[in-house]
User: What shape does this take?
Amino acid sequence: MREMTHIAAWVVASGIVAELLGYLLHRLLHSGRIRWLSASHMKHHMVLYGPLQKQRPSEHYMDATTDRFSIGNIGVEWLAPTAVLLVLAETIFWAFRVRLVHQAVFFATVLAWSFVMFSYLHDRMHVKNFWMERNPILKGWFRRGRQLHDIHHRMLNDGGLMDKNFGIGFFLFDRLFGTLSPEQSSFNHHGYAAARERFEYLETPRAR
Ligand SMILES: [Zn+2]
Ligand SMILES: [Zn+2]
Ligand SMILES: [Zn+2]
Assistant: This one.
């Protein structure tokens, strides 16, 4: 019984770690600091589901990773940081002699959580008629998250960066770091012009 409590605590802590890492990575992708890492995500934001485009044009998701290295539709922008995380976490676990079963719980939770939230759930926020929007238990939560994600797509700062609502299903770290925006302010056309200039390279990725 004590071991079950132990494992439950590891699952919860690992979920929070996954949320934090996802939040930080999402912010990094939007900063444009590492161009090759940001390419797919910013194509999602600037070309496929742009700030003035429909966020749910059809029942099919438009994949931004098609012409790049990816596993399924999970692009290099998630795979590379995941590899870094695995090595880093393993080093820490090894140094602190964390038991193998706890390590396994950690990795399984972080990977499953990240996949469900940042890949599955996110992509479903861009398709029409997803079952969750009608599910009596989940619809309130799902619709609220989707609304905040629409705002994430539409709000730009004057530098041309999207800087609100980096969470997908949960917004704990947006709250903590002050990036939560529950309402959409009037559209920043000046910021959008700056964004189009900044991410111009996405339109013609091969011509560079
Ligand atoms: Zn234990
Ligand atoms: Zn984003
Ligand atoms: Zn999106």
About this structure: The mean pLDDT is 91. Residues 2-202 form one domain.
